[in-house]
Amino acid sequence: MDIVLSGIRPTGQLHLGNYFGALRNFVRMQYDAKCYFFIADYHSLTTHNDPAHLHENVKTVLAEYLAAGINPDIATVYVQSDVPQVAELSLLLGMHAYVGELERTASFKDKVRKNPNNVNAGLLTYPVLMAADILLHRATHVPVGKDQEQHLELTRVFARRFNNMYGVDFFPESMPYNFGSELVKIPGLDGTGKMGKSENNGIFLADSDEAIRKKVMRAVTDSGPTEPNSPLSEGVANIFAIMEAVSSPDTIAFFREKYATCEIRYGDLKKQLAEDIIKVVAPIRERIEAIKCDESYLRRVVRDGAEKARESADRTVAEVRRIMGIRPF
Ligand code: TYM
Predict the structure, then answer these.
(1) How much is the average pLDDT of 43-55?
(2) pTM of the model
(3) Alpha helix positions (H), the chain
(4) Active-site residue 111, yes or no?
(5) How many whole angstroms from 177 Cα to the centroid of ligand 1?
(6) What is residue 264's predicted lDDT score, i.e. its pLDDT?
């Protein structure tokens, strides 16, 4: 049977990238497979969170998961630190992860470049902990955005190495997954790079309609095409890329045609994009507000989720211990 798992770090509100990269795919799969969705609070500690805010961030992300459509009666929803078995699996997998391959990971190199004063061991072993998250439940499908592709590749390297080393067929080949198409990268509104929490270029699931309109109207474009079929500048290409996620094929075709014939008005394009984003975000935002206030519901969801996740985790860790030769007297 397919086993689906994904997670998000609780470092602030979720944005459209998290939604289209991970959440929405998960929501679509939850009725057809055994599904685990967790909040990666251990992972968020690599950047030294403020302890005063961590719990609130976990709660926010949990409410946003549920508001986006994750059904905790079907899927197992849990907080990573409620299932500390993952730390043991990470330690055991770490024995077969080479420092060289971890140092070459793009995300590690990026963090070192951006933050040379905090190159902690947790950052280096981040992919090992992520592999442990995935292999803890022997997940076969991992709904993620394009930025996580390399981490999934490493997960498969570790799984294969473990299987080969011990002559077993225990861990699966965990594949990154996007419902029905290639992995997605939702760009930001600032004309560069991907949408991110810290880049200040995002649309959040909790944003008001007005905030969404303002952000989209301020998105970076250019002075307009001067020749038919001219190439798109990065800012305009990004607007079309977000449209691919939220707008109908007819709408996209209409504006592409307008661009190709130099008749496009970016104001109209942005207005349409804002309204199409609002159609996705507004119903989620309304549910976030209601769910966040329901403390006892949130408590029940994480308690039940942790219990189910621990059962599966205990089985995997017991088997890995046995395979590696750790036995009781
Ligand atoms: P994180 O917290 O950075 O992002 C959570 C999910 O959102 C996706 N994502 C995007 N997808 C498309 N376009 C974007 N602009 C965009 N920004 C973020 C990410 O691909 C991710 O799927 N290492 C992970 C968390 C994690 C995890 C795991 C994920 C820990 N253990 C096990 C899956 C399985 C991370 O930092 O994601």
Answers:
(1) 90
(2) 0.96
(3) 16-18, 24-29, 41-44, 51-67, 85-94, 99-103, 106-114, 121-124, 126-136, 149-166, 209-217, 234-246, 249-260, 266-292, 295-324
(4) yes
(5) 12
(6) 97
Task: Report whether pLDDT(48) > 80.
Answer: no
Q: Encode pLDDT of 188-236 as tens digits.
A: 999 888 999 877 899 999 999 999 999 999 999 999 999 998 999 999 9
pLDDT band at 107 (very low <50, low <70, confident <90, very high): very high
194 is catalytic: yes
The Cα 233–Cα 242 span in angstroms is 15
**Is 181 a residue whose pLDDT tops 90?**
no
Q: Is the dihedral of CA 111, 127, 203, 296 positive or negative?
A: negative
First-last CA distance in the chain: 35
Ligand 1 closest atom vs CA 5: 34
pLDDT over 70, % of the chain:
100
The Cα–Cα gap between 146 and 151 comes to 10
Integer Cα distance of 236 and 269 in angstroms = 10
Considering Cα of 235, then 237, then 241, then 244, what sign does the dihedral take? positive
The neighbouring-strand residues paired with 39 are 8, 79
* 236-240 contacts at long range (C-beta below 8 A, 24 or more positions apart): 236/266, 237/187, 238/187, 238/188, 238/189, 238/191, 239/189, 239/269, 239/270, 239/273
* Other CB atoms within 10 A of residue 110 CB: 10
Give the DSSP per-residue string, 248-313: -HHHHHHHHHHHHTT---HHHHHHHHHHHHHHHHHHHHHHHHHHHT-HHHHHHHHHHHHHHHHHHH
C-alpha–C-alpha distance, residues 104 and 88, integer Å? 24
Name residues contacting ligand 1 (CB within 6 A): 5-9, 17-18, 20-22, 40, 43, 130, 133-134, 142, 144-145, 147-148, 151, 184-186, 194-196
Pocket test for ligand 1, best of 5, 11, 15, 18 (most atoms within 8 A of CB): 18
